[in-house]
Design a protein that fits this description.
Protein name: Alpha/beta hydrolase
CATH class: Alpha Beta
CATH superfamily: Alpha/Beta hydrolase fold, catalytic domain
Shape: globular
Radius of gyration: 18 Å
Distance between the termini: 33 Å
CATH architecture: 3-Layer(aba) Sandwich
Domain AB hydrolase-1: 31-285
GO molecular function: hydrolase activity
Structural class: alpha/beta
Strand order of the largest sheet: 1-2-4-3-5-6-7-8
Number of strands: 8
Keywords: Hydrolase
Number of helices: 14
Organism: Phytohabitans suffuscus
Length: 301
Amino acid sequence: MTTVEQAEIRLSDGPRLHLRTAGPPGAPVTIVLLHGWVLDGRTWHRQVRPLAEVARVVTYDARGHGRSGGVERSTATLDRLGDDLAEVLRAVAPAGPVVLAGHSLGGMTIMEYAHRHPADFAERVAGLLLLSTTAEGHTHTVYGLPQPVAQLVRVAEMTSAQVLARLGGWRPHRAFALALRPSLRWLLFGHPCDPADVLLTTKAVARASLSSIGGFRPSVGAQARLDTLAALPAVPTAVLVGERDRLTPPVCALSIAKALPGAALTICPDAGHMLMLERPDVVTEALLDVVRAARDRHRKA
């Protein structure tokens, strides 16, 4: 049985991050799994056990999410999340090859880390999995709605985000979050959908601070990192997206794969945004393929 150990690290600007580790400490490869916006590391729970058989696995809750410390308006940015990832790697995987896997905001965090720490990235990162994410902010996000309606929704979303960003460390009342479950089901999931996955996702949203829910929105919407991807050193890479993803639709994955020649692109029929829960075997196998390729390249090197 795989043992998952809990730990904390303190970031250089003060907040603490909650981490989970599994697998042998001396494994030849370390996998770091990064979760999506207003979620937490538990969303990767179906991948941890099979991955821990071949590598050391690290998940952590981003600042302002899950069991990690709060976030201020000035630090609710992708820049800061990219720097946080650099600190996490120095703390938990100071040596040896690393495979980075990012879902949604987690994928954007990886791109920001590559942009802000290119030498570090080139030296450490041996493989990538980019899952239900984008390198173009909200350019292609229409929430599965007609374009005129989506524009109105975006205006309302940005306005409410400004309000939420001012509310600090408060978290949504559990009853309110659970009332959102049908909306989250529609927005984040395709078909079929396990009610337990919707509940897990809803509980994660309830743990995110209101400043995180609203504060990161401007930075996420303005992101533009296709040029960063095009300049990355070639490493084994998998790009996955759900056919019914309403937040980062397949066009987002297509542009990422175009910027990363050699990346393996998978579009999962009928799936939504939460691929690690909706299609766990597909995601796990794609990660294992990346890890095997990264391990082989490291041995040859």
